[in-house]
């Protein structure tokens, strides 16, 4: 009967246009299957880990049998597996007892606070405002491209690279097809259950934006849960509260929030998996078999989401395996032989996408707050070692994790300094992981907090909680009020995001939406925004090209429009039009908008104060404005250049 329901329920939901209802059913089934823990939040975290890893691996089968990505077969197969596992483990006969203790309620409350900080900026904005928030990270355009293409081909792009050829430049084909795609495939599968997700590219991008926010919330929950696990079962609410508040402040106002703001979903997934792995390597689950399955799932999750973190994951998992003497069990060898090659597939694809100097490439990620990171590292180590902390195997394991990650960061820093004279993009990405590992290890500091009396009444417990809040408040305020690479910028990046000071590029997103609504498939041309200021035009042109399926033709235009690149002349613009393999459609609005110069080597542009926004009239006064240049080119190439006069929203 249960196996029949596993297929009848998805079929009925699909018939009733209620595919979305299958998502909570799948999560609930995975939660019920977790018999290695009794706490509801423990079960939820483990269930999400297993579902994500299973989706990443099932994506290999989907790539050859694309019908598996449709809601009915996807849910039917998933519920069948859950039912069979439940029968094998006795879950169908003996439902687990779920406990909700005061510590779990406290943890849930702090997770809700982190979720609120992440949600408010997105809920408070319109469609263009939401989509524009991660646009300044610029990578979100390519993340959407991969998510959209995986939904079209119904499988991994590294197994269908030729499907990308009509959509990306030839020079980017290998890099895009082999980019880590676990989170993109998961998004594509989830989107199949959401009504209207494939109605048009704008709706699809909106879904992607909400999935990005959801990923951050799950990442925050993973880090807080992991810190609580490191604290141990004996930690009481009054001891945990100050630690969880500090962790929450770092997540909401420190460097981790910039990963959301810049739009890096795969990195968030990798950080979340690494956090849970750190906690379980230190404090394993009660069942060795469940622990092994979960560790394997976490390593797979890291491999398919962010292979840069795979060395740390392998070290953390290997340390636990050595501590448990797993080589003595035949099933551990079988598991490694089966799953290691599957995890290696994503790693090999990522290596194929990387050049010899991959670790030396620059990027647009915010520089990590150096002083705050050093303070966090010191706090984490102190919480692990003082007062005889190393007598605990769990704290020794956590210290090994912190020390191992510090060595990895130091090695990459030394390599980058030796090669280019300074640290660059991927050093900051590794610092993000070091921060997460330290936040997890900070849970050990709970044992150093004042402990409430076992027989304390309600008033005494309330006073203990107030003392905990007061103890954490200096660090919370320090993280909320200041930030930046040297912790001297006010306010922090998280507070800028929360208060709306950091808006991303909502105008660029709205322009891209306007262009896409006018020409959903590009109208047979590459659409170029010359409507407004330089950054706005750059973002709008790239995003519109991705939404319209014209990203293949945007590379030269993105380079020409890039405000910090070589200043373009009318001849440069003319040459790009002449060499374009497709017609060019210029969007115009503000007649004063300009970007061109007379001499690229000696550009005469407005002088700006440091940090000032670029003006709409950014070009040389002696050079044509954007509108004048567009009209000149339309007259010179009457069959190739089209001009559209459009009024952007909110003008």
Characterization of the model:
- By secondary structure, the chain is mainly α.
- Among the domains are: about 1-100, no CATH class; about 120-210; about 505-645, no CATH class.
- About 60% of the residues lie in helices and about 0% in strands.
- It has helices at about 1-15, 20-35, 40-60, 70-90, 100-125, 125-130, 140-155, 170-175, 180-190, 200-230, 235-255, 255-260, 265-280, 290-305, 310-325, 330-355, 370-385, 395-420, 425-440, 460-480, 495-500, 505-520, 535-545, 555-560, 570-580, 625-635; strands at about 525-530, 585-590, 640-645.
- A three-stranded parallel sheet has the order 1-2-3, sandwiched between helices.
- The mean pLDDT is about 90.
How many runs of DSSP E, i.e. beta strands? 3
Shape: globular
The low-pLDDT segments are none
Distance between the termini: 60 Å
Order of helices and strands: HHHHHHHHHHHHHHHHHHHHHHEHHHEHE
Structural class: mainly alpha
Supply Rg: 26 Å
SS summary, helix count: 26
- Average pLDDT rating: 91
Order of strands side by side in the largest beta sheet? 1-2-3
Give the quaternary arrangement of the chains. single chain
- What characterizes the major β-sheet? 3 strands, parallel
Fraction of residues in β-strands? under 5%
Fraction of residues in H or I helices: 55-70%
Secondary structure layout:
Layout: H1 2-15, H2 22-33, H3 40-62, H4 71-89, H5 102-123, H6 127-132, H7 140-153, H8 170-177, H9 182-191, H10 201-231, H11 237-253, H12 256-261, H13 265-282, H14 288-305, H15 310-324, H16 330-353, H17 370-385, H18 393-420, H19 425-441, H20 458-481, H21 493-499, H22 506-518, E1 526-529, H23 534-547, H24 555-561, H25 570-579, E2 584-588, H26 626-636, E3 641-645
Parallel strand pairs: 1-2, 2-3
